[in-house]
Amino acid sequence: MSWMSPSYHLLQWPENPISRYKVYLYREQGWDTEHFVAGHPVIFIPGNAGSYQQVRSIASSAARQYHGEPGGRAHGMEAQKKLDLFTLDLNEDFSAFHARTLKDQATFIQHSIIRVLGEYDHLALNQRPTQVTLLAHSMGGISARLAVKREDVSSKVDMVLTMSTPHTIPPLTFQLEMEAIYQQIAKSTGPLLISVCGGVSDSEIVSDSCALSSTTITEEDGFSVFTSNIPGVWTGVDHQAMVWCHQVRWLVARVLLSMTKQEERSRKLAVARRWLIGSDQKFNPSSGIAQRIAVTSSNMTILIQSQTERVTELSIQHCNEECHNLTSKTELIPFPKDPNAPFPLPGEGIKAGEVVIAADVTLHQVDGFLAFNSKAQAVVDVGSHLDKVILGSDWSE
């Protein structure tokens, strides 16, 4: 479960193109103490019959990760911008059942992007954001993709991140107009597109419809990932829980925060891949020595348990007469506290203490020792790195 202290501030909009829809700015009470926006704008788009208040779990996590403490600034967040979470009140309309409603929402999103960017007019011209990020749940992802089909709108959006969105098959197929919308967005162009899927635990949409095929998007333009394969989540997530499941909302907030310091499209995509897929995670070392580890082979793996939810930096050095910094390739792996209990527990996710970081290092000489430096992590185990291959029912190394 996740906890938050939400507040919503209605944006005044005399020229609102669709009067039944509204835009709110989210603020975490006691944490967001600023009276103006100066960060990176993110617009949350709810799905079919969804509420604008569904943004609260992710927005609260983003605020708390950024500040560290009420009104403060967390360590490691100095280079990142704050997230300004805006959320759309779409009147809880049934967008999955009515293509015209879906089009109205796409139109409102287009106007909302311009309206939200106008909130930053008080800043100097070179400090104003020129793009927003769209964060969408369920059918909100289809509305968002339809909205950015307009070229002048597409240039104002850096990424569309969807959660439990049926990208390839509409939930109901009795409207030709809905089919036409899906054909219109069949090929993704413009902003980065990332799809997070709940898998078989999501009983409201066809699981495969959430995945982005190679005909929809290229590797340079985005990807899709199932929560059961996200490091530190490793479990299916149902349709509604996608926006409040703690492990997922923490990661989504961290992805958005980490992207704020990246200007290039490729770097933003690399950040998303690192957090959501775990590929090519490399941490550069810092100074200092806390623990010594005997070198036993040229390829070693160190299992490290973090006292915080995620590791941001590791320092590993190879020492003999002198110490040399090593860059480790790391990944998260399960580490249940009770080896006799099911993992994960049925209907539950992975807790922070049930994850360890596996850091692989390659050495040119088998001598001396490894020096591991960190105050927030502890070494659980260390040894030679072995690759095991399963051939039928037989194991081989």
How is this structure best described in words?
This is GPI inositol-deacylase. This protein is an alpha/beta fold. The protein folds into two domains: 6-276, 3-Layer(aba) Sandwich (Rossmann fold); 281-396, no CATH class. It has helices spanning 56-67, 99-117, 140-147, 151-154, 176-184, 246-259, 265-276, and strands at residues 6-10, 22-28, 40-45, 83-89, 132-137, 157-163, 192-197, 222-226, 281-283, 291-294, 299-306, 315-319, 323-326, 328-334, 355-362, 369-373, 377-384, 389-391, 394-396. The strands form four sheets. The protein has an eight-stranded mixed β-sheet with strand order 1-2-4-3-5-6-7-8, with helices on both faces. A five-stranded antiparallel β-sheet has the order 9-14-15-11-17, with no helix packed on it. Helix 1 (56-67) crosses helix 6 and helix 6 packs antiparallel against helix 7. The longest helix is centred in the first third of the chain and has 19 residues, at 99-117. The protein is globular, with a radius of gyration of 23 Å. The model is unreliable at 280-289 (pLDDT under 50).
